[in-house]
Amino acid sequence: MTTQKGLEKWKAKQWFDVQTPAVLGNEVIGSVPAADEKAVTGRIMKVSLAWVTHDPSHSFYTTGLRIINAANGKADTEVAYLESQFSYLRSLVKRHSDAVYTYDKLKSKDGSEAVVKLLITTRNKVPYSKTHAIRVAVSTLLKEHFAKHTKDEIIKGLLNGEIRKEAIEILNKIAPISKFEIKRVEFSRKIA
User: Fold this and answer.
1) pTM for this one?
2) Would you list the domain boundaries of the chain?
3) What element of type H or E holds 51?
4) How many of the other CB atoms lie within 10 Å of CB of 109?
5) Rounded mean pLDDT of 31-38?
6) Is residue 189 within 8 Å of residue 66, measured between CB atoms?
């Protein structure tokens, strides 16, 4: 009887339990096979955020968890990105309203760099001067918020709606806002 090609390699692999970062509860969310610790480091697991946080309000979000360290059958992760599903974002843009997209490169208090992409929808059509004012106000708010908080505090603020609430309060003075949503927040890789 012949053996399948590569079967010995597969049997030699070990399994690593992947654990979420402390900001998301330090829970084991799955296992990944790898030949050794170095082979598993750097992988990104894409997971539904609602599955990790057990909060149904996060059901339209996904998160990428980057494995930063693996030892003794366990793999520690960090948040690589948070993003909204395209179908959800598309459903927010309505007729007779405007969609304002923002893009900002920011640095947190602890030195983590992030690219933040947001979608802000207005209740009705607004002139270009107001959409520009919305972008400027959001950029200013995010720069101030990132400068005062660490990466973990920023992630908590995004997930619990603290940043959204503060932003809508400021932006409603410019134009009536209906939605303030995360399109994608991508954090730079931690170098160990």
Assistant:
1) 0.85
2) 7-84, 86-187
3) helix 49-53
4) 14
5) 86
6) yes
